[in-house]
Specification:
The protein is an alpha+beta fold and 144 residues long. It has two helices and four strands, in the order E-H-E-H-E-E. The chain has a four-stranded mixed beta sheet with strand order 1-4-2-3, covered by helices on one side. Helix 1 (28-43) crosses helix 2. The protein is globular and about 40 Å long. The termini are close together. The model has no long low-confidence stretch (mean pLDDT 87).
Length: 144
């Protein structure tokens, strides 16, 4: 069983509506932070494996400081942001990618990163709670 675990400072990417998060100013730093943390976790494993087959289990634990949370920060938006953020951006989004991604090719959204296809995720466990110290989140991915 393959497993990676990593922590990311700040809020997870927040996917809302049909508009791509890959070009949205407020989401790009979150996407880069997510992909960098996943990259470090994968590099620490032999052969830098990726999750390509069922069953994949994703656990997301979001901790937010009250008052720092954005409007429309539903847990399901964070789940979708993390799942999509670990895959490749949809080809329709490639024309609208933020220029920040060009500065960091190891997190290039044109390539899938940790999860090849989130349709292969069979189980998602997610929690969101308020904390007093700092906003951050943990991601755990398990698969064959």
């Amino acid at each position: 069983m393959l497993e990676i675990k990593f922590e990311v400072d700040g809020r997870p990417p927040n996917k809302t509506g049909a508009k791509s998060m890959w070009g949205r100013e407020g989401q790009v730093p979150r996407l880069i932070a997510l992909r960098e943390a996943a990259h470090r976790a994968l590099e620490a494993l032999p052969d830098s494996p990726r999750f390509t087959r069922r069953p994949i289990r994703l656990t997301l634990r979001v901790r937010v400081v009250p008052g720092e949370e954005e409007e429309k920060a539903d847990l399901d938006h964070y789940i979708a942001g993390v799942c999509d953020g670990l895959m490749a951006a949809h080809p329709n989004a490639h024309a609208h990618l933020h220029e920040s991604f060009a500065e960091n090719p190891k997190v290039d959204p044109k390539h899938w990163f940790a999860i090849e296809d989130d349709s292969k995720i069979d189980q998602i466990r997610a929690t969101r709670c308020e904390v007093q110290d700092r906003t951050h989140y943990w991601v755990e991915i398990e698969g064959p």
